[in-house]
Structure formats: C-alpha cells, structure tokens
Amino acid sequence: MKLFFPRETATGETRAAMVPALIAKLTALDADVQVESGIGGSINQPDEAYAKAGAAIITDRAAALTDADLVLRLNPPPDAEITLMKRGCIHVSYLDPFFHTGRVSALADAGVEAICMEMIPRTTIAQKMDALSSQANLAGYAAVLQAVTRLDKIVPMMMTPAGTLSPAKVFVIGAGVAGLQAIATAKRLGARVEAFDTRPVVEEQVQSLGARFLKVDLGETGQTSSGYARELTPEQLELQRQAMAKACAQADIVITTAQLFGRKAPRIITSAMIEGMTAGSVIVDMAAESGGNVEGSEPGRDVVINGVTVIGAANLAGQVPVAASQMYASNLVNLVEHFWDAESKAFTLDREDEIIQGALLTFGGKVVNPAIKERMN
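Given the sequence above, the corresponding structure tokens read:
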C-alpha cells in the first residue's frame, strides 16, 4: 500500500505531517512510504533524513497524489488536488467539515474516503490519535509565551535590594487541554494564576496545577459526551461576563480558549471589559480563527484596544513546529497502526469501529457522517 505525505503549502504553515524518526514504524508494517521533497524544510529536516529512515522522496506531487492509496497530511487538500486522487483513495487530514461542507461534497464526488482528524472521538483508546488535543496542548504553551513577550513587566515575583516585584496575574478562561497547559506554563513561569470554566468537573484539575478556580453559579452547564463544554444560554453568558469582568480587571494577562466544535466561538470578552483592564496588560484570543472570544480581536494580528494588547492567535502550535510536527506525525502513525491489517498489508476502514464511525466523512461516493449530513441538509 502506498502512503504519501505531501509537503504543507498553506500560507504561514510551519508544521510537517511526518518526521524522519517515525518513518521506521510505517516501513515496519511493509508500507510503501513516500514523502514529498521539502516536507521537512520548516522543521530543519532535509530530504536525506527521510530517505535514510526508509521513505522514498517524491518530486512530482501530482503524480504521487494520483497514485497513492493513503494520503496523510495536516491541512485540508486544495480543491484542485481533490480531483487528482484516485477513487477509493483514503485521505486523512484536518478538514474543518462543519464550515466547509462544499469540500466534503467534493471529496465524496471524487470517490475519496475522507477521515477527519478533528473528529477523532475523545475516548481512551483514541487518545493516541487525538490531534486536536496534541496540538491544543502545544497551543496553550505557546499562548503564554506570546503574552509574556508583549507584557511590559516580568512574570515571577522578584525580591531585590531595590524592592520586591509582585508576580504577574494570569487569568485563563477555559480549562480544556489548551487551558490546562496554559495554566501549567504560567505557573512554571511564576505567575499567580486564576482560571474559569463552565464545567465544574474541571475545578480539581485546575487546583491540582496550583491555580485558583473562579466559581460562578451559572445553573446547569456541564459538558458533552465528547468532553466539550456545552453552549451557554444568553443569560448564562451575561452572568459569566459579569463575574469575569472583575477577574480581567485584576489580571496582567488574560488567555481565552473557549471554542465550540462545529460552531462559531462564543464572545466572552467585550469592549467594556477591556476598558476595565489596566493599560499594558495583554489578552490572547486562542479562538480568533473560529470567530473570536474577544471583541475586536483579529486573526493573526495584534490589536491595541484602550492600551490593552489583544493577540488574535493563529496557528499557535506552529510557533513550536518541531514539537507540533512530532506530535501530529505520531497521531497519524498511531491511526495507521491501529487500523493496519498485517495479512493484507493495508489500512482497513472498519465501518463498525467507533473511531471510524466518528471520523469518517465520506465513503463509496457518499457523505456518511451523520453530523455532517445533518449540517449539509
């Protein structure tokens, strides 16, 4: 079976879908591993490193896409490349299917069996394939570093002969994978950290990292069966804003991580709340690319509002591309190994498997994922 890893071509992308160190795991399956020339350029991995690990270096991208049985990449395929892939080819990548249903239809029309990495279920057995979590972990780390480099003061408490400098105060909104890593990173740097989440179940996790959990009585909230926060009502959002306005006013750094899979990110920080913050403080909007948690944030840009720097974070995991590439490549390898049939030496789509049921979007020329079919209708 021919596995092809194309070079990422999306503007600003620094990550790679495969690293040399993991090639051996795939060749051990007797897979024919091919990578496009230059795939590791952004992570300082030359073609020679991939070739030495056992991969064939491909210079004709179009021909490789046409011939591959399994295409594995990070970003969604450009429209022109969907029609290049042969019918029955399995394609694995991020696909953003809820907001790009036309792409899903195009994959189905082309007869491509598309697996969406964002829709890998958050179950114990699927943890090793969960790219959203692996990349969110790094994004939480990078978000803190982005904020620290723009802050006009130091983070840890410092006692000097000239006096004592108080630690910076960091307020993290959302205690999912990204939020918890942001909390841990800020604590390591010596900040005083407070966090909020609509799911009371995460309070213990927040406290275990040494942060204070901000309690707000919102009534019934909780989380979905997939571990995501449930969408709040307008009344709950207003109660949340009132409680958070005070926390934001006292914070030097605010990091927002609230995202709703398949929906626009909720607006959490308003202009009025920003006006209540101290000039020189920093906000990182980790949801800027999916609608934004912060009023006035712009994806990929820093905006100064009333003296507060609002960072519209974009591809935060790409700020640490070596680690991000290693983790994403590991997610892909774990997926391949899990569904690899040793006898036929091929990746098998077990339609009865819960992971495939959750992540498979198209099969046999049709859209088969129930959630995406509902959105499209």
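The first strand starts at residue 2 and ends at 5. Try to locate this feature in the token string yourself.
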